[in-house]
Design brief:
homodimer; alpha/beta; Nucleotidyltransferase, domain 5; five-stranded mixed sheet; 5 helices; 18% strand
Chain lengths: 181, 181
C-alpha cells in the first residue's frame, strides 16, 4: 500500500509518501514541506496548501492519506490553523475518493518508537532507520509526515477492519469494498 | 455590494446573501443551510460543504464573502469542526479571488443589535426587520449567516481601508486594487 502522510500546518505542512506493508521493509517515495507565507491572507494560504497537496497526490498517486488528528491542548491560534490546514488535506483526498485516516500524535509516536511520549529527535531517528535514509528528514514536520504514513501502514489492517465494520453497520445492504493490500 | 455570509459548521453551515450599502435599505437575495450527515466520514462531509458553498457562489456571484471567526472557548470537538468547515468556505472564496473577511460573533451581534452579547432571538428579530422579512429565518445558523453579511456591509468601509493599508505596506510597488462600492 502507498500512503501520503500529512502533518498539517499553515506555515509548514509536512508531506511524505511511504510504500510497503506491515512486516516488510518500507520504502520512502518522497518527502517535503508545503509552505505558505505567514503574512498572506488566510484564504490565500489555504489555496496554496490545496495546490501543494494536489501536486503531491498527482505525482505519487497514494491509495491512502493519513493526517494527524488535531487536538486543542496547544496554543489556541496554532490549533485553529492546524485544523484549517488539515481540513484542506482531507478535502483534497476525499474529493478523489481516497480513504482518509486520522492518527493522534501519540499513536504515531508509539507506532514508530514504541513510546507514545517520545521526543521529536527520537521520532526522526526511527524514521531514518525504518526508511534506511542517510539522515533524518528536515524540518521535523517532514519527518512527522513520514512517521504518520508508517503508522498508517502498520495500523492499517486493524483500522481498515474497523472502518469496514462501521460501514457495514451503517449500510448493511451496500457491499463493503474489500481492502486489498 | 453583494456579500455571502457563512456561519460555518459541519452539521449545519448557514449561508445568506445580502446586497446593499451602508446607510441604505438592504436586500436579501437568498438564505439557506448546507447540511452534512453526522455519521459520514469527515473528508466526505468537507467535500459536501465545498459543493454546497460552490453552488451558492455560482448562483449569487457575491463580491465578498464574510465568515464567522472561530474561537475555541466552546466545546473542543465542535470548534474543530467549525474551524474545518470555515476553512472550506474560505478556500472556495479565495480560489475565485473573492476577498474573505472574518468577523467575530460579538462584532456581528453588535452590528445588527447594538449589543455584542445579544441573544440568538434578538439577532433573528433584527435580521428580520433589517431585511424586511415576514419571519425570522430558520434555523438560527441561517439567520446568523445573514447577520454576518449585514455586518460586513456596514463594517466594510473601515475593514477594506485597513486591508488596503496592510496590502500597501506589504507590497508598496504593487498598485492596490480600488474597492468600488
Amino acid at each position: 500500500m502507498r500512503v501520503l502522510g500529512v502533518d498539517p500546518g499553515l506555515t509548514r505542512c509536512g508531506v511524505g509518501v511511504v510504500e510497503g506493508v506491515a512486516g516488510r521493509p518500507l520504502k520512502m517515495l518522497g518527502v517535503g514541506v508545503v509552505r505558505t507565507p505567514a503574512d498572506a491572507e488566510l484564504g490565500d494560504r489555504l489555496v496554496a496548501i490545496e495546490r501543494g497537496i494536489e501536486a503531491w497526490l498527482d505525482e505519487h498517486r497514494p491509495e491512502y492519506v493519513a493526517v494527524e488528528r488535531v487536538f486543542s491542548q496547544h496554543n489556541v491560534r496554532t490549533v485553529m490553523g492546524t485544523a484549517q490546514a488539515s481540513a484542506v488535506a482531507m478535502l483534497c483526498a476525499a474529493r478523489r475518493g481516497l480513504p482518509v485516516a486520522l492518527h493522534t500524535p501519540s499513536e504515531v509516536k508509539a507506532a514508530v518508537t514504541g513510546n507514545g511520549r517520545a521526543e521529536k529527535d527520537q521520532v526522526g531517528a526511527m524514521v531514518t532507520r525504518l526508511l534506511r535514509l542517510d539522515a533524518p528528514p528536515k524540518p521535523a514536520d517532514a519527518a512527522d509526515a513520514l512517521a504518520l504514513a508508517i503508522c498508517h501502514i502498520w495500523r492499517a489492517p486493524a483500522v481498515n477492519r474497523l472502518q469496514q465494520a462501521h460501514a457495514a453497520a451503517r449500510a448493511p445492504r451496500i457491499p463493503v469494498r474489500k481492502v486489498t493490500r
